[in-house]
Specification:
By secondary structure, the protein is of the alpha/beta class. The chain folds into two domains: 252 residues, P-loop containing nucleotide triphosphate hydrolases (Rossmann fold, 3-Layer(aba) Sandwich); 30 residues, no CATH class. 35% of the residues lie in helices and 20% in strands. The chain has 15 helices and twelve strands. The strands form two sheets. Strands 6-7-8-3-9-10-12-11 form an eight-stranded mixed β-sheet, sandwiched between helices. Strands 2-1-4-5 form a four-stranded antiparallel β-sheet, covered by helices on one side. Strand 11 and strand 12 form a beta hairpin. Helix 7 packs across helix 8 and helix 7 packs parallel to helix 9. The radius of gyration is 23 Å and the shape is globular. It starts with 6 loop residues before the first strand and ends in a 12-residue tail after the last helix.
């Protein structure tokens, strides 16, 4: 059951586009320049003179959601759907192309606005996917964890910093003596505990967790997830959890949002989404979970692959793979439709064309 805290993070109309057009220098070096200068209506000459022919990826294309204090909101979807881009937008690693990010009543979306509120940045931290790449291999663990303390000016006395680092290490299940070691002396799960300790050093209220367990063994994943849930209870933390693993999402979430090609196609509280999914894409993801209970539940396989984000389909972006698609789906993008426990963007739901779906527990 979701916790009933006040809204901490509100994201509205979030957009982020990337220009992936081939660089001019690359075209010169590989001999394409002369050819493209003189060929067709999409020639390089035309692009240089009137800015046509640019290749734009709409990584995030109008995303809305709200996370209440003390909740875990998870974003799930296949690789390349825009989940990690949303995470980086929220913590300020990417700038916005549109939309707004409101944190505890303060607008922090545009880079200029975020710079006016450094205290907001300190209240949110990020845990990255790869514990092998996110820690400086040349720094001892104590220095890695102490850096947020020094940067934010939370502690200045070296003895007090050392004591606090020891407390943080103990908090994540490591020994204070581990502060003297280097990252390469630890396993993957231990390194992720160090990453969590570093994130907690800044005394944040909100943690953005970008697939924090995907690089770990299954047994270690459970340990890290249990640690994060325990820290959330003890410290009152709020999480945005990014994952493609529905089993992990079910374990940690209060609410779940399903992304496809840069947009949210469905969101709901965890129990509603897993037991009564509405969008055909959500059903496809849930059907991919092994039926260990041998219930014999009928499954509807969805063929095809995720379309290229450089050339997304017209209308509903899922229609090439959807068994329920009709002419309207191919021409008109669906708008979010409020439903019990959340919202869904699907013409089939709106038109009551959705077949009965039974949960694995049914």
């Amino acid at each position: 059951m979701s916790k009933q805290g006040k809204p901490l993070l509100q994201v509205t109309g979030l957009k982020r586009y990337f220009d992936v057009s081939p660089p001019l220098l690359n075209q010169i070096l590989d001999g394409r320049l002369l050819k493209r200068l003189t060929s067709g209506s999409g020639s390089l000459w035309q692009r240089l003179t009137n800015a046509q022919g640019r290749r734009i990826v709409r990584a995030v294309d109008g995303v809305d959601f709200t996370i209440n204090q003390g909740e875990t909101f998870s974003l799930v979807g296949e690789s390349g759907c825009g989940k990690s881009t949303v995470a980086r937008l929220i913590v300020g690693l990417y700038g916005l192309n549109g939309g707004s990010i409101n944190f505890d009543g303060v607008e922090v979306g545009p880079t200029a606005e975020r710079a006016k509120h450094p205290e907001i940045q300190g209240r949110m931290q990020m845990i990255f996917q790869d514990p092998y790449a996110s820690l400086n291999p040349r720094w001892r663990v104590g220095k890695i964890i102490a850096e947020p303390l020094r940067f934010r000016g939370l502690l200045k006395d070296n003895k007090a910093i050392e004591q606090r680092v020891g407390e943080l290490l103990a908090q994540v299940g490591l020994s204070p003596l581990d502060a003297r070691k280097f990252p390469h002396e630890f396993s993957g799960g231990q390194r992720q505990r160090i990453s969590i300790a570093r994130a907690l050093a800044g005394e944040p209220e909100f943690l953005v967790c970008d697939e924090p367990t995907s690089a770990l063994d299954v047994s270690v994943q459970a340990q890290i997830l249990n640690l994060m849930k325990d820290l959330q209870r003890r410290l009152g933390l709020t999480y945005l959890f990014i994952s493609h693993n529905l089993a992990v999402v079910y374990h940690v979430s209060d609410k779940v949002g399903v992304m496809y090609l840069g947009r949210l196609v469905e969101w709901a509280d965890k129990r509603t989404l897993f037991e009564r999914p509405l969008h055909p894409y959500t059903r496809m993801l849930l059907d991919a979970i092994p039926d260990l209970e041998m219930t014999g539940r009928a499954r509807t396989p969805v063929a095809g692959e995720v379309p290229s984000p450089l050339n997304p389909p017209s209308g509903c972006s899922f229609h090439p793979r959807c068994p329920l698609a009709n002419a309207r789906c191919k021409s008109e993008a669906p708008k979010p439709l409020p439903v019990a426990g959340g919202a869904v963007a699907c013409h089939a739901v709106e038109e009551n064309r959705l077949p009965v779906w039974k949960s694995a527990a049914a």
